[in-house]
Design a protein that fits this description.
By secondary structure, the protein is α/β, with parallel strands linked by helices. Helices cover 31% and strands 22% of the residues.
Length: 234
């Protein structure tokens, strides 16, 4: 098999029913399973808070309008960078516009020691990040072929494509252009092996245990029982 890809958890170890996604506990678990890092979602809360959250609402609270007293149980981008910037590959997905300055300031304060990428579905976000910083790796996320068709028109280092859009020719095309390609969300063994065989640069999966067991069995670790039996929100 060619050089093995990066193994990344989707929102941490999302397949785990005992640990909530997009929490420090879920990120810890993905790393314990043997992943190189993880993808996580960032939203703007109020005018100046970057918090880790996938959906626009949490319960009855609209994230974009949340006060400082609300959503304090959710980790911030700074929390994640402080805890993992020295030891994990981070795929930081920006869900909305308006986060660019906050994210770049946070990355300057907590400079990751491993490689990382700031990604988004929104081309304007990608363009704004690159205009403000020439050193931060950025990525465009593609779920549809119409989105994927635009990858080579954007100043990105990474293409983060849904697995249904990827074939071996696409992998070679993107890599020949000096870019890297990550596949999401890959949750079955056959697809993991096929993508690795094509030389994909990274695989993002909900099932971090299956991912590591399939593509890097030497890194499988025994997970402590408290990860499996105790629900905690970091």
């Amino acid at each position: 098999m060619p050089n093995l890809p990066l193994l990344l958890g989707h929102r941490g170890a999302r397949a785990s029913r005992s640990v909530p996604e997009n929490t420090l506990a879920s990120f810890d678990l993905a790393l314990r399973h043997g992943c190189d890092g993880f993808e996580f979602d960032v939203r703007l809360a109020g005018a100046d808070r970057a918090i880790v959250c996938h959906d626009p609402k949490v319960g009855r609270v609209t994230v974009s309008r949340a006060s400082r007293r609300q959503l304090v149980h959710l980790p911030s981008l700074n929390d994640v960078l402080q805890r993992y910037a020295h030891r994990a590959f981070l795929n930081i997905e920006l869900k909305v516009k308006g986060l660019e300055t906050i994210v770049l300031d946070a990355l300057r304060e907590h400079r990751p020691e491993r490689e990382f990428v700031v990604s988004s579905f929104i081309p304007d976000v990608v363009m704004e990040l690159k205009a403000r910083s020439g050193v931060v790796n950025v990525g465009i996320i593609c779920e549809k072929r119409s989105q994927l068709a635009q990858w080579n028109k954007l100043p990105v280092e990474y293409v983060v494509a849904h697995e249904s859009l990827i074939d071996e020719d696409l992998v070679q095309e993107i890599q020949a252009a000096g870019r890297r390609i990550l596949a999401w969300t890959v949750n079955d063994k056959r697809s993991m092996v096929r993508l690795a065989g094509w030389g994909i640069d990274g695989v993002i999966s909900d099932d971090t245990q299956l991912l590591v067991r399939t593509l890097r069995p030497s890194k499988v670790e025994r997970v402590p029982a408290h990860y499996l039996n105790h629900r905690q929100r970091a």
